[in-house]
Amino acid sequence: RIQIISQTNQGGGAARNAGMLAAKGEYLVFWDSDDLFDLHALQVLSEKCDRDKLDLCIFSGWLFHHETQDSIVWQALIKPEHLPATSLFSGQDIPDHIFQITTPQPWNKMFRREAVKQWGIFFQPIKKADDLRFVYMALALAQRIAVLNRPFVYYRVYGMQRAKGLCCFDFIEALDSLKSELQQRDLYARYQRSYVNLELRQFVWVLESVMHLPQLLNRHNRRMIRSLYKAFRLRADKWTQAGYPRDFYYRQDDFCEMRKCVHKPWIVYLAEFICRSCWRYAKRYASKAKKALA
Questions:
Q1: Residue 78 contacts by C-beta under 8 Å, 6 or more apart in sequence?
Q2: What are phi and psi of 13, to 5 degrees?
Q3: Per DSSP, what are the bridge partners of residue 62?
Q4: pLDDT tens track for 86-105
Q5: pLDDT band for position 164 (cuts 50, 70, 90)
Q6: What one-character-per-residue DSSP string does 176-219 give?
Q7: 271 falls in which pLDDT band (50, 70, 90)?
Q8: What is the rounded distance in angstroms from the CA atom of residue 229 to the CA atom of residue 236?
Q9: Which of 8, 87, 157, 246 has the most C-beta neighbours closer than 10 Å?
C-alpha cells in the first residue's frame, strides 16, 4: 500500500507532481517529511469528503517550534472573516475573498484526485512558492469546498525560517503564473479583487520578512532586497493606476505600505527603516539596562 518513488532532486513541486501522477486513491494529501500529523487525520478527512462529496477540504493546524518544542494554533490557516455563512461553498459564492480564506500551503488540505485530474493543475517546478498556483487554482475551480476547523498537522518551524525567504523571487513567478492561468480560463475578472489583495499581501509579507538590520549589513543581501523593493514599486504603480478605491483593499496596513512604496524611492525607504530599527534597538537595550541596574 506504500510506494516509494525515486527521482533526481528537482524540488518539492516536481516531487509532488510525481506522487500525484502515481496516486490511485480517491483523495490526495501532500505532507512534508519534517512535520507531524494526527494519527486519525486521513480517516476523519476522507469520511468528511465522502459525506459531503467534497472536491477540497481545508483544515487547521499548529505551528510547532523545533527549538522550544512549543506549539500554538496557526490562525492564518483559516480566515473565518472571509468565509461564507454556508458550510459548503465554491469560489463563485465568495469571488472577492476566495484567495483570502486560507494560505497556499497544500498540507492543510485534502483534494479529490479526479477533480484535480479534471482541472489539469500541477505544482510549479520552482524552488519556493511552488504550491501557490496549484492551491489557489484548486480554490478557484472547486465546486464543493468545506472547512473543518480542527487541527490535524503540526507544522515545524525553525529559528531562522523567516530568513530563508531572502533573495527569493519565486513568489513573483508564482503569482504571475496564477494570474495567467486565471486569464486563460476566463476567471480573472471574477476573482480580480481577491487576486490583487493576495498579490499585495504576498509582496508586503516577503518584504517584511527580509527587512532586518543584520541582513542589510551584507552588500549582496542589500542589493537583492533593493531589487525586491523595486519590483514591489512597479506593482504598486500598476495598482495605483488601476484606480482601485481604498476600500478595495482588505488590509489597510498593506494599503499604507503600497502608498509608501509608490511615493518613496528605495534610499528614503531604507533610511527610514534603519532609523526605526535603531530606535527600537535603543529602547530595548535601555529597558534591559534599567532592569539590570534596578
A1: 58, 59, 60, 101, 102, 147, 149
A2: -60, -45
A3: 73, 154
A4: 999 999 999 999 999 999 99
A5: very low
A6: HHHHHHHHHTT-HHHHHHHHHHHHHHHHHHHHHHH--HHHHTSH
A7: confident
A8: 10
A9: 157
**Residue type at 182 in one-letter notation:** L
CA atoms within 13 A on the CB side of 178: 29
The answer to whether residue 162 scores a pLDDT higher than 70 is no
Q: Per-residue pLDDT for 159 more than 70?
A: no
> CA separation (Å) from 284 to 47, 65, 93, 238, 279?
51, 24, 47, 39, 9
Q: How far apart are CA 294 and CA 291, in angstroms?
A: 5
Cα four-point dihedral sign 249, 255, 177, 30: negative
> Nearest-CA neighbor of 101 among 112, 111, 91?
91
Cα 173 from Cα 284, distance rounded (Å): 38
Q: Is the pLDDT of residue 156 over 70?
A: yes
Alpha-carbon span 211 to 219, nearest angstrom: 13
pLDDT range class, residue 163, cuts 50, 70, 90 = very low
